[in-house]
Design a protein that fits this description.
Blueprint (H helix, E strand, L loop, with lengths): L1 H15 L8 E3 L1 H7 L2 E6 L9 H10 L3 H6 L1 E4 L3 H13 L3 E5 L5 H9 L3 E4 L4 H14 L3 E3 L5 H17 L5 E5 L4 H13 L4 E7 L4 H8 L25 H8 L2 E5 L1 H15 L5 H12 L1 H4 L3 E6 L6 H7 L1
Parallel strand pairs: 2-10, 3-4, 3-6, 4-5, 7-8, 7-10, 8-9
Antiparallel strand pairs: 1-2
Length: 318
């Protein structure tokens, strides 16, 4: 499973290279001094559309047949995947619609529309939005582009792992925020295939720790999600999600953080790194801060998965 995903990621890296940015790996002096480790931030917030999601969306659209592209594409998203799909569809001349939950960040909705994406609202939890979008796609004979439950989407996200190894070959630990599990599944497969000793840490908010709790239980659980700054990781997981066994295989440990920890992490990053990040990235940093004792002296990469944050939320942080 790990080797297959890693090989798919290598193919994806070549496929998407003309359309997706190679993002910086930034060494943080402030965080390194604070934690007594070498801390690096992988800046996917500088990716086109402001998040890592463009990688998976672009790879999936490029692997569709001409007929599938002609019939159009449907996606479900709390925002970032939707913007990525809209951007990729615009670049490749594919029509489609993006479903988002009610209450989705205004910044993320505007980002989708920025790429001429058609937005429809449905549901309150990521899972019910996904199920509705799948049904819509089937009814209209269109292709449903999953945010995580798709091998080629996972492979696209895994290209980040290839970049990390090229930028920091002796990486020891990575911290990654987890929602549906495609990001950590892809990156983790690449890293573990290269060196099984690299520690992969999954980070989730206490308001929606679905994957962490499911892995602990040995089965995908149905759990209600509470409001969280980390809207990009909130919501349920599809019952047949291929990311579940992949997460079981590649994630060494889970860190669950509360909203106060997420806010503190986002504020610390904003002040020390002079950059705004979204809540899901704050979850990964909060996971890092909660693991200070375990990472001393290590080469650590934290995935800054996105930077799409509303002006209102940013003002509250400042």
């Amino acid at each position: 499973m790990i080797g297959k995903t890693a090989r798919a990621a290598r193919r994806a890296a070549k496929r998407i290279a003309p359309l997706v940015r190679h993002t910086p790996l930034h060494h943080s002096v402030a965080f390194s001094e604070r934690l007594g480790a070498n801390i690096w931030f992988k800046l996917e917030n500088r990716q086109e559309t402001g998040s890592f999601k463009l990688r998976g969306a672009t790879n999936r659209l490029l692997t569709l047949t001409d007929d599938q592209r002609a019939r159009g594409c449907v996606a479900a998203s709390s925002g970032n995947h939707g913007a990525a799909v809209a951007c990729a569809m615009q670049q490749l001349g594919v029509a489609g619609v993006i479903f988002v939950p009610e209450g989705t960040s205004s910044a993320k909705v505007e980002k989708i529309r920025q790429y001429d994406g058609e937005v429809e609202f449905f549901g309150t939890d990521g899972l019910d939005t996904e199920q509705h979008a799948r049904a819509y796609a089937a009814q209209h004979d269109m292709f449903y582009l999953s945010p995580y439950n798709d091998e080629e989407v996972i492979a696209g996200q895994g290209t980040i792992g290839i970049e990390i190894l090229g930028q920091l070959p002796d990486v020891d630990v990575v911290f990654i925020a987890v929602g549906g599990g495609g990001l950590i599944g892809g990156i983790g497969s690449v890293l573990k295939n290269h060196d099984p000793g690299i520690r992969v840490v999954g980070c989730q908010p206490v308001a929606s720790p679905v994957m962490a709790r499911s892995v602990e239980a040995g089965e995908i659980l149905e759990m209600a999600s509470e409001p969280t700054l980390s809207d990009g990781t909130a919501g349920g997981i599809e019952p047949d999600a291929i990311t579940f066994p992949l997460n079981q295989a590649v994630v060494d440990e889970w860190v669950v953080v509360d909203e106060d920890e997420i806010v503190a992490a986002m504020r610390l990053y904003l002040r020390s790194e002079s950059g705004a990040i979204e809540g899901a990235a704050g979850v990964a940093i909060a996971g890092l801060l909660a693991s200070a004792a375990e990472i001393a002296g290590s080469n650590v990469v934290v995935l800054i998965c996105g930077g799409n944050i509303s002006a209102e939320t940013l003002n509250q942080l400042e």
